[in-house]
Structures are given as structure tokens and as C-alpha cells.
Amino acid sequence: MSDIYSRVSNYIMKHEMLSEGDRVLAAVSGGADSMCMLDLLIRFCGEHGMKLGVVHVDHGFRSESASEAAYVESFCRERDIPFFLEKIEPGSIPKSEEAARIRRYELISEVSSKNGYTCTALAHNMRDRAETILFNIFRGTGLTGLTGIRPVRDEFIRPIMCLDRSEIEAYLETAGISFCTDQTNLEDDYSRNRIRHHILPEAEMINDGSLRHMNDMAEDVSGVCDLISQLASEAYQDVVRAGSAGEYSIDISRFSGLHPVIRGEVIRMILHHMTPHLKDISREHISGVEDLAFRDSNGRFDLPYGIRAYRSYETICVRKDPEGDSSAEGAIIGIPEKGLRIDLTGLTPGGEPMIIRMDESRELVFSLTEVLSAEAKSGMTSGSDYAKCFDYDKINKLLDLRFRREDDHLIIDAEGHSKKLSRYMIESKIPEFMRDRIPVIADGTDIIWIAGYRDSYAYRIEDSTTRILKIQIADSNTKGEKDG
Q: Is 149 left (phi over 0), alpha (psi -120 to 50) or beta?
């Protein structure tokens, strides 16, 4: 027993699972693994002055679940350990291993947060990690999948993952600690059980050290993955820009010069921000995004969760697609599909501005100024993409705030030459996916201003101008102008 405790204690310290002042919540089902972990943690926490609590989740799937909860509660009560019982209400989740796992983690995290615990101990063992590695290989995995279950991930620690099941059962027998047996673990209904009952025993017939060798490999691969992650994080800062509304832009010239392994990890890092998990992101998805960098033309690639990656000139844009996610595109800008009518007749020189909300953080501010001197007039001319000044008397007082349409055109010079809005956007290298979501201020098909871009020559200030209309994109929180 002392050898087992010494190994677990060293494993905890090697992976820096616990430190002084930690409050540990042990998730205990009553099975052999969790009872062994609990007994070892009682001793470890006692020696290091740490507080220990226990949470048990009753899934309610089996008739014996109530007795298992009672056993764990009694064990804790006898040792004066705080005990928390959480129940999954029948019918509240699908009756599946995955749904139960997700809900179990949610309940455990809630208990931990409410009661001030700093980490949660889970009772995975060496065999569990080997099963996970094989499961990942069979399903299809990259390097990360070869790490299996990590000893430490976020607030979760796995202090007995250095032990095999046979060692755990021998420890409990010597200590005189009984445990519960979940009969469903003896069935072959789940893929993991088939790996556990058939494949791993065959592996041990080939080499009786196979489990330990797989765990050693997982430790080595974990170190490699940590190094790759560090290098990819540095590359991410150099080649990726996060935009508004959860969009990510990749600089192709820099991205294409990275090592292929780093390129793939950079893409995974982007997708990690955009998806609930990477479980449904395959090697093909990563390659599909990466291949956009080496195309001779623009293109797109579709991924799960309504995500699309676009190549637009020298940039790859990754964003939620509006067709797959109702929160994207038109909903990002607070402008109805048919647009808004803007009535400027209510503006007075020096009076209150008109404010139109564009989205959660931006608004359009319309203000009118009467300017008679040439000096003051020159000061009103703005070269910012986010603030433009116009001759108020040249403008129709009923304008439209909307998105582009087929026949829209823009006056591009003092001679009155016009250009179709679609052609201007192409020549300006505005990414294709953005073109239908840039607001424009228009008089019919005549574009006055492409918000955030350029304005029409037809309405610019002249020597004869006496009233100046200023339109600016402002931060809705500070009302400050965004020059740039």
C-alpha cells in the first residue's frame, strides 16, 4: 500500500496537480477506481493541509444507483468528509453514455463552483487512458488524440492515472475497502467496453507491458503537443486577426510560410474559439481550410457548426455562415433587410444630432452645421473612412440606409464619372462575404457613402457650400469618433 501511495503522491507532484491552499472536490461513483482515489486523497490532503470534499452524481439509470449513493455518503460521513449528492432527473437528458457524461460534468462543476473548491479529482486509471488512445485512433485522430486523457486539464485532475486496475483492486482488498460494480461496464454495448474487454487483453497477450507503454507514449506525445501549441500560439499572434462578430482573418503570405504542423494547429485554435468542442472537426476540415492558402483563385470551404472559410485575395476569412447560423450576417447589423428611411428634415444647424443604431457597439450620427467662412469650411472636410462631410443642400432629404443592390453606382471623380458599386468593391479587394453586409447611404441607386469606406464626389463640399452634413460611425458607448 505504501508503494501505491508513494507512486500516486509523486504523480500528483510531477504534474503539479495540487498546491498549498487547494480545496479538492473528489468525484466518487462508489466504483473501485473512485474509492481507491478517495482513500489516497484522504491521506494526501491530510498530510498537506488541504480540504477535501466528495460529490456523487446519481444518474438514475439503474435500480442500484440509490444504494451506491448511500454507500458513498456513509463512507464520507464516517470520516467527516463533506458530501454532495446530485441527481440527474429521469427524462431530463437522452439515455446515452455521452449525454450522461456531459450532464455529470456540469453538475460536478456547479458543486465545485458553489462551494469554493479549486479543483476536481476524477478517477481515471491507466487502462482508461489506453482505451481512449485506441478509441481516438480508430475514430481518426491527430497528435492530440494520442495523448488520450490528460493528467490535468483545466480544473480537473486525475491523480490515479498512474495505476492499473489490477493494482487498484489489490489496494482496496488490502485496505479492506469495498466498492460497487456497475454491471453495464461488463457489457459490450459501448465501443469503449469492446476495446476494454477484447482489444486490450489481446494487446497484453502480445506484451504484458503494453498498457504502460501506451501511457508512456501518451506522456511523450503530450510534451510534443505542448511544444507545438506554444509555437502555434506565437504564430497565431502573427498571422491571425480577430474581427468583430467572431470573424477571423488569416494573412496568407505569412500563414503559407509556416510549418504544416503549425498551420494545422493555428486553424484548430481559430475553430476552438468558434465551436463548442473540436470533436466534429476532422483532419479533412483542417486540410480544407489550409488548402485555401494555396489556391490560384478565391474560394470557400464549409465546416460543421455553420462555419465557412473564404479565400479573398491574400486573406482567409473564417466566420459563421448566415445560412447556417441565424446570428450571423444580416443580424449582425441592426438594419432591416429592406433598409431604413432616413429623414433629414428634422436636423437644424447646431441642433441635436440624429442617431441611428447599427449594432450593439456602433451607431451612425448625423449632424448639421452652418458654415460661412472658407477657413471654417476647410476644417469640416474629413478624410476619415469613419466620418464624412457633405454639402447638405445637394442631398435629397429622404435617404436610405441599407445594403447594396444590383444597380447601385458611385460617382468617383469631379467630372461625374460613375462606377458600379459591385465593381468598386471588387477593385477595392473587399472580401466577398463582407460585400452584402456593409451599410450604404443611398439616394435611390446613387450611393452617397459606403459606410467605413469612400463617399461620392457628387455631394462633396464646395466653395459655395453653406450647410454641412456630417455623418460619422461612432462607438455607442463613448459617442467618440473613430478616425482611421
A: beta
Look at strands 119-121 and 240-242 and give their pairing.
unpaired
Question: 413 near 370, Cβ under 8 Å?
Answer: no
Q: Could you give the CA distance from residue 271 to residue 267 in angstroms, rounded to a whole number? A: 6
- Edge to edge, the sheet with strand 23-27 lists 83-87, 51-58, 23-27, 119-121, 156-157, 152-153
Task: Read off the amino acid at residue 186.
Answer: L
What 3-state class would DSSP assign to 11?
helix
Task: Enter the DSSP assignment of 197.
Answer: I
CA distances (Å), 197 to each of 140, 184, 202, 203, in order?
Answer: 21, 12, 9, 11
DSSP string covering 91-134, please? TSS-SSHHHHHHHHHHHHHHHHHHTT-SEEE----HHHHHHHHH
Q: For residues 170 and 179, what is the distance between their CA atoms, to the nearest angstrom?
A: 12
Which residue ranges form the domains of the chain, and what is each CATH number?
2-220 (3.40.50.620), 243-320 (3.30.465.60), 340-475 (3.50.40.10)
Whole-angstrom Cα distance, residue 208 to residue 348?
88
Mean pLDDT of 294-313: 85
Percent of the chain topping pLDDT 90: 56
pLDDT tens per residue across span 125-162:
999 999 999 998 988 787 888 999 999 998 999 999 99
Q: Which residues pair with 85 in a beta bridge?
A: 56
User: Residue 123 to residues 35, 149, 400, 432: CA-CA distances in angstroms?
Assistant: 8, 11, 63, 50
